Amino acid sequence: METLSPLLPREKLLRDGAMLLTDEELLALFLRTGTRSKNVFALARDLLQHFGSLHGLLSAEMKDFRRVEGIGLATFAQLKGIAELAQRYYCSGIRGINPLKDPQMTREFVRSQLAEEEREIFMVIFLDNQNRVLSHSRLFSGTLSHVEVHPREIAREAIKVNAAGVILAHNHPSGRAEPSKADRDVTARIIKCCQFMDIRVLDHLVIGRGEYVSFAERGWI
After folding, report:
1. 147: which strand partners?
2. How far is CA 198 from the centre of its chain?
3. Model pLDDT, residue 70
């Protein structure tokens, strides 16, 4: 088995920052070794192609790995641990922040939750009366191109956690973040429903692949 000297991706990370590493380089840095027939970069490339993306790799089940050469149970467990660590990192980072003062953190959090999903997911971030995050919840899930949203359920959940405001977010698995007429219509219905409960809707973020649209930035809220 060939062992990777971690200097190349590690040096790049230290010199340029982790954001400039490719998915293949990040995965190779973690794997460290290849197999008898593949160096670690070839293994990383093949894994990403097999599972479609980092999200596909990190969210795959154990049975999916049994058909992949070079991945044992120990590596599978480590990959699942990395996925959970990333989720907890973003969840712990978002709680208590003011999205109006740190919109980039909010966008990154929403993107981490929704960008790679293969079906539409509608998430709500609940805020207190000082616009600090109380909690978040994936309230509705749908198909590749549609999710059914019930405004009264959003208002009901907001009341449960004593929220004074909400930020709405959902993804477009197609990759295009541009909101549809249905997106704008359901947002208007949610705003109207929440107004009866004195709950403010601060924004609606639509997440695509590498892009987003903010209703607030567009002046629609």
Report:
1. none
2. 29
3. 65
